[in-house]
Structures are given as structure tokens and as C-alpha cells.
């Protein structure tokens, strides 16, 4: 059975009240319970997270997902963390959408380097229909290389989600970013409900959901618990959960915030693992700043996916060679290596 199909029923903060499904309250993750996990002594929290992780991912592998910015900069939104918002002076230049050959070359290289998922990101509030033709062609061609496909293009209408599904897209990434009550501190050009609406359209189209957030934006521990509760109470919870550590970029409003205690970041990963036991929890942006020891703690806390490749969208990620060396040092196998050995066993070669 696929790792994404065995999800316990959870309640639900779905996009529109009409779509809400009421399940027994016992199946929910009330924020207080999530906060109680955050408040556990560190070792106890790590132990619980390890137990959950081992029970649900016996292979203990790490997924490598490579990102490509297919349309960089010039975005009309005002997300306070984002170097691609046109209104902030961050040195990111607005570029046109990439051509298909450039995308295909990057995808092939990602595959050759051992990635199994390829995620295409665009600096849009939402895609225009003329953009959709190009993105669909990208999705079809990347999928034909044998990679899992993911896209993050901003808010989607129902018909756009359906078009992506029909083109063969596997995952759609759309982050809730933070707790509902903290959202206005970070973004004013859209509302939390807009994000939930898009997530609803993505689910209805039959796409898998990649949804997470950012920590270190000045939110409280309770608000970190609020973000995780939102994610865990989606019904079903996301198959992929990227947990980003804020990358502070000069020129953005969030630049200069006091840095988050790294143990809070590790705790956030552990709580995500416990509350969403079958999700791929991705240790996402900010790994360069975290360093190897904190990343190792995140893997112990249940992270089992990383963005892999020298660049995220516009900022630097650890070098691919360094990542391979780190995984090797920690004795962690990649998802690609595990899949390959399963294939070899089944063909007897
Ligand atoms: N424009 C689309 C959107 O906002 O949904 C897709 C691209 S956007 C860059 C994808 C995600 O990247 C954001 O939702 C946010 O979680 C993350 N992100 C952007 N800038 C970041 C930063 N400086 N540090 C950490 N994460 C960041
Ligand atoms: C996600 O949660 N993080 C990625 C991906 N989804 C698209 C993006 C991180 C962006 C970090 C800032 C930058 O490189 O521009
Ligand atoms: Fe635009 Fe996405 Fe950046 Fe917000 S996060 S400014 S929507 S690219």
C-alpha cells in the first residue's frame, strides 16, 4: 500500500463550510494538545517522534526533491518573507517564464543526481490561463522522465487544479505558512481562507497536497502549534509537509528579526511527525543556516525529505555534494536508492 493512503480520520478545516466533514472530536488535534507536545521535555518529544517515525517509515529513507524557479521575481503579493515580491528591494530581478528545454535539462540533471521529485515554482499570486499551457507542457515532459512532479504557482481555481491533474501533476505545493491569527502580520494581499480554498480545489481535483509553513517569523510557540494543528486537522492531512526556517533576505520586512532558537525548529519537526505520522516531513528552506548538527537532530525528529540542489528558488541551499556527504555520514539512505534496490530485488538482477 502506498505510504499516503493510510491516514486516520481527522477533522477538518476545509475550504468552505459546505465541504466540512464532521468527525468525532477524538480524532482531531486541538491546538492545546499540539502545544502540549511542544512543551514536552526535549528528549521525551524526540523519543515519541522517533517511535512514530519508525512505525510509519520502516525504510527510514530520505526523499530528495529538487526545486526550480520557472518564473522568478516581480510578484504582486506582499509576503513579508519573500525576496520575489516586486515591492521589496532585494536584488531579485523579474524574469520571464523559462522555456521548456531549460526546465527539462534541469529535471534531467536532478534525476541524474538522485532526486526523485521535481518541484516547479512560480512567483505568481495565481497563474493566468496562458501560463497554464506552458506549465502543463512542463509537467508532462518532466513526468515522462520518470520523476514525481510538484508545482507551486499560487492560488488556483477549480478548473486550473483539474488541468494540472490532467497533465499528470502528482503534488501541488501551497503553504499555510503560519497560524491563522498571525497571518496578517506577514501578508496583507490575501487571506488565510484563500489558501484553504486553493487547498480544497487541489484535493477535489485528486492531486496530492504538499502544504507546510515557515517558522522563525516572530511567531510564538503557541502560534507554531497553531500552524501544525491547522495542517494536521486538514482532512486528510497533507502527504508532504515542508517546514521552512525563515531565510532572512535583506530588503524584506522580516529581515533583521532575532533568530529562532534552533531547538524550537527541531521541536516543530517532531510535532509535525507525531501529528501527521504518514506524511513526508520536509526539512525545507534554511538548512544552510541550521548547520549539520541541527539538521541531524531534525532527521532524528522525523524529517524524511529535503530540498536538494544548490539553489532553492532564489536563495542558496547546501551544495548537493555536501548533502550527499551528510546523509552518508549519518547512514541515511535516499528514497531513490531504496526504490532502486527494491527494483533490483524484484527483477533478480
Ligand atoms: N508564489 C507561490 C505562493 O506563494 O504560493 C509559490 C512560490 S512561494 C516562493 C512558495 C513558498 O516558499 C511560500 O509559501 C513560503 O512558504 C516559502 N518561502 C518563500 N520565501 C521564503 C523565505 N525567505 N524563507 C522561507 N521560506 C520561504
Ligand atoms: C516550500 O515550502 N519551500 C520552497 C518550496 N516550497 C517552493 C521555497 C523556499 C523558498 C526560499 C526562498 C527563496 O529561495 O526564494
Ligand atoms: Fe509572490 Fe509567492 Fe513570494 Fe508571496 S511567496 S511574494 S505569492 S512568490
Secondary-structure content class = alpha/beta
- Helix content bin: 40-55%
CATH topology: TIM Barrel
CATH architectural designation: Alpha-Beta Barrel
Distance between the termini: 24 Å
Q: Largest beta sheet, briefly?
A: 9 strands, parallel
Number of helices: 12
The CATH homologous superfamily is termed Aldolase class I
Q: In total, how many domains does the architecture comprise? A: 1
Quaternary structure state of the chains depicted:
single chain
Poorly predicted runs are: 1-27
CATH first level: Alpha Beta
Radius of gyration: 19 Å
Shape: globular
* Average pLDDT: 93
Strand proportion, as a percent range, falls in: 5-15%
How would you characterize this protein structure?
The longest helix is centred in the middle third of the chain and has 16 residues. Helix 10 links the parallel strand 8 and strand 9. The N terminus is likely disordered. This protein has a 9-stranded parallel sheet with strand order 5-4-3-2-1-9-8-7-6. The protein has 349 residues and is an alpha/beta fold. The chain is globular. Helix 1 packs across helix 8, helix 3 runs parallel beside helix 4 and helix 5 packs across helix 7. The protein has 12 helices and 9 strands. The protein has a single domain, classed as Aldolase class I (TIM Barrel). 41% of the residues lie in helices and 12% in strands. The protein binds S-adenosylmethionine (SAM), 6-(5-methyl-2-OXO-imidazolidin-4-yl)-hexanoic acid and iron/sulfur cluster. The site of iron/sulfur cluster (SF4) has 9 residues, from loops.
